[in-house]
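Example record

The entry below shows one chain as it appears in the dataset: sequence first, then structure tokens.
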Amino acid sequence: MAKFLQAVTDGILGGAVYALMAAGLTLIFGVMDIINIAQGVLVVLAAYLSYVLSVHLHIDPLLGLLITVPAMFVLGKDGRVRATHAGYASKATGPYFVQEQKEFLAELDRLLAEK
């Protein structure tokens, strides 16, 4: 019975991670009209940091969230600030980039329809 409860708990928590990732991608796409998969990098880094804290440093995973969440916030904020100062953010969100992305997706749809 204990293994069953552990499997159910793992399934629910794994599904919650996928739901949060999907909600974040949907929010970014809905607001900016750009597909941004850089969020996935932060999710993977957060998972790895949580793993290291739990397995190697023997910190409780729930307590490790107090370390992981601020660390990922700072890392994500720092990356955004650097991109903005370098001028990349304005290029990535400008109308030319959005048009270029829409043309790429239209071409991809056309190629997939041919097959």
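Notes for this example: Residues 2-114 form one domain. Residues 28 and 95 are 16 Å apart (CA to CA).
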